Amino acid sequence: MTVSEKVALTQAETEIINNFIALKGKLPQRGLLLETARKAAMDAFYKHGLPSRRMENWHYTDMRTQLICIAPYSSKSGGALAAPLLSRSIVLGLINGQAVIPSHKAGKKMPATPFGALLANGEAELPQDFANDNVIAQLNTALVSDGWKLDFPENTSSDKIIELQNVQNGAQSHVRFPVIIGSNANVMIIERQIGNDEESFISSVSNLDISEGAQVSWIIIRTRGMTSTELNQFNARLGKNVALKLYIINAGSRFLRQEINVNLDGMGADFQLRGINLLSGKTHTDTTMVVRHLAKDTTSTEIIRNVAIDEARGVFQGMIRVAKEAQKTDASMICNSLILSDSAEFDTKPELEIFADDVACGHGATVAEIDRDQLFYLMARGIPEAQARAMLVKAFVGELIEGFDRKEMGEVLHILLDQWLQVHI
Amino acid sequence: MPAAQETIRQVHKIDVDQYKYGFETKIETEKAPKGLNEETIRFISERKRESGWMLEWRLQAYRRWLQMQEPRWARLSYTEINFQDYYYYAAPKSQIEPKSLDKVDPELLATYEKLGIPLKEQEILTGVRKQGERSELDSNIYASDRVAVDAVFDSVSVITTFKEELARAGVIFCSISEAVRKHSELVKKYLGSVVPIADNFYAALNSAVFTDGSFVYVPKNVRCPMELSTYFRINERNTGQFERTLIIADEGAYVSYLEGCTAPQRDENQLHAAVVELIALEDAEIKYSTVQNWYPGDKEGRGGIYNFVTKRGDCRGNNSKISWTQVETGSAITWKYPSCLLRGDNSRGHFYSIAVANGHQQIDSGTKMVHLGRNTSSRIISKGISAGFSENTYRGQVTAHRRAANARNFTQCDSLLIGNDCGAHTVPYIEAKNATAQFEHEATTSKISEDHLFYVMQRGIQEEEAIALIINGFVKEVIQELPMEFAVEAQKLIGISLEGSVG
């Protein structure tokens, strides 16, 4: 007997199922394959429902109680794309779940196709099998309507930065970003999750397939309003000698589940993750990561820094899996949290699962308040307490965004951190 | 970096086919009818000559157990346990309850002799025989004249040594069955107060059918004059052993307790589901050490004990301290998380563990430190080694509740793999619910303090040697937590260095 058979549907579950029924035949799709994928996804959701804390992967995030109701679909289209963070980048936008075709020439030269168009002419691919607790894949597959497909040919080495903007002003949308990166390509992509203060519900899935020798930087910046709910999944497969750097900065959303699944498939592949969670208000932010070392000589380093104030609750679940074949793996994961109010909470679960005997894996986790000695040191030099605290918090998180090849990227991120600190600390 | 040769040699020395305690004692036993129902529980309660409240308590636990589901979240795989397939009570016919030494079946005494546990106080005290002659096995702590032993054989306690000497100090040390009869006020007050009857599936089962174990009460401001220990032996075929231990250290008291366990070599999987409750009142300290050496199964993974254990200490009073030290080498399956509830202000909880898995052994073990009071601190040091086809998981939880201001935790867990068919896993849960909590969790040898390393290397010692030196210092730290006499057993493990630790 499974849990889902016993319990009644929650309001959110009912709304999701009703949405699917209402949208039947209206979502872009062509061909039997897409139709069966969507149906399989919804069947899986119907069978398993929203995950509860009884599922180990959702131990600290009970969606059955967290997700009270779902922002409904809305026909009103509003809003505009934001100015790009870096002036030279190419913006590929989505407004309320609909791709915005870029007008300037550079955009047209880009190997980018709206995902909605691919769905409509049957050229899109959607997953067919769903793990019982993979609610993000279930929802996204069932309801996806648009997105961007990116295809970088071999040896692409462009100084053009792609900025994916997912603008959501209220309502609901489900988008997808399949990304293929050819061998020895060198690309930088910014994924911005933005929108106004209206209540919204979003699922967003990125799938990266990175071939031999490519170097990729992917930067997720989330500053959407404090009433939005976002389910985000970042999946990547790394071929031989691929280097992937993933930066995630969260400074928004009422409810967020950010999943990261990285497979180090080829020898010598390297994955770097730097995550900054700036948590305020009465919010829930969950980062759940699985890094699989599947080949020899693979390396990974994951550093997560969290600052929690107000009644914010943060979660980091990290798992490093080292397969039997992945000898000489070198992996380390560390999660540091700074809790600045008595009503804030941070829960950490940094797991290791190791099947190879000649590897070095480390994990660490710390939770602390601001160091009194450091505070005293600054205040003794005439810096007011509030400012001194802000400086220390800034130093704590700022460290993670040093060392960008493109200096202006680091500058933009520092401005972002400063803005948050100014308002909240 | 792979494991050091010395370590590999030491781990092989205690491999599953080297099990030395696998012999069987031929003795006539009385058993409860096979299977579990309310009648079985009445049978046990009757044999133990318990009064009505105890039977009611057991039945209540049984009814709750019927409604519970077996936990499956641990990283363990085993075929379903048929709870109706066990005998829940087995006792030597001659021995329904502890007796005076001259009345104990010589066969039983011989068994304990063989295990290295002399039960004759006179001989121990006069030193008639030297430690070395006493047993063909490695001799150990039990042979010391500073250790009182409660010897539990299947479902009954055979004898408890040094009771009179302990009584003179006001310490009560006896089997739990005896305590239920003779000290029922204390038992009523504390039994189930740390691990409630419906705490979990196995605790509920134990509450319903527990047969024997030890009871310790150390009165106010008494430092227990000797080490206390219990030796558990499973002998009968198809039986489950359900030990129940309750230790209470009243205000300002101190006690150190050691538990050991072995079982014969058999193809079947025998069940051992224990509950241990510790209560430390204000300023009290309890030190609890375990050497778990149940039969681990053979090379192919046949047989071995299923060990499902709930151990929990309650630092109930201010400034109290509980420490758990465990050396785990036995059992086919281990499911065990000795925990501390840090309820009193300034209370402290420690957990030191060395777990070695060989053959097809599976270990899912760790601890829980629940910080509830103010200024509480906890420390976790865990070392897991996997060899052969084994799986070794550390699972630990550290929680600071809203009101646990200034909670401190330090955790270090290291694992080592020997060979490529085994697995090592670490699953820590770290939950901070207030701003003044300070938690540190770390793993791997690379976390050796740079300062220490620098200090040692500066004196002309090569890096590798310097690391070894520092690590050995760390290993000794765990071993030192064990009662001194017991170090012999632990000595075997001291050679295991952390070189090649994988995190």
Entry keywords:
heterodimer; A: 425 residues; alpha/beta; 23% helix; globular; disordered N terminus; B: alpha/beta; six-stranded parallel β-barrel; 13 helices
Overview of this protein structure:
The complex is a heterodimer of chains A (425) and B (503). Chain A is of the alpha/beta class. Chain A folds into 2 domains: 3-266, no CATH class; 370-425, no CATH class. Chain A has helices at 3-6, 11-23, 32-48, 63-66, 105-109, 115-120, 135-143, 372-380, 385-398, 407-424, and strands spanning 90-95, 98-100, 112-114, 146-152, 162-167, 171-181, 186-194, 200-210, 215-222, 228-238, 243-250, 255-264, 270-279, 284-293, 299-308, 313-322, 330-339, 345-354, 360-368. In chain A, the strands form 2 sheets. A 10-stranded mixed sheet of chain A has the order 2-1-5-7-9-11-13-15-17-19, covered by helices on one side. Chain A has a 9-stranded mixed sheet with strand order 3-4-6-8-10-12-14-16-18. The termini of chain A are far apart. With 503 residues, chain B is α/β, with parallel strands linked by helices. Chain B has one domain. Chain B is 23% helix and 33% strand. Chain B contains 13 helices and 24 strands. In chain B, the strands form 3 sheets. Chain B has a 10-stranded mixed sheet with strand order 4-3-7-10-12-14-17-20-22-24, covered by helices on one side. Chain B has a 6-stranded parallel barrel with strand order 13-15-18-21-19-16. A two-stranded antiparallel sheet of chain B has the order 1-2. In chain B, strand 3 and strand 4 form a beta hairpin. In chain B, helix 8 crosses helix 9 (184-190), helix 11 crosses helix 12 (463-479) and helix 12 (463-479) packs antiparallel against helix 13. The chains are: A alpha/beta (425), B alpha/beta (503). Chain A binds chain B through residues 56, 59, 322, 324, 331-332, 337, 339-369, and chain B through 1-3, 73, 400, 402, 415, 417-444, 446-447, 500, 502-503.
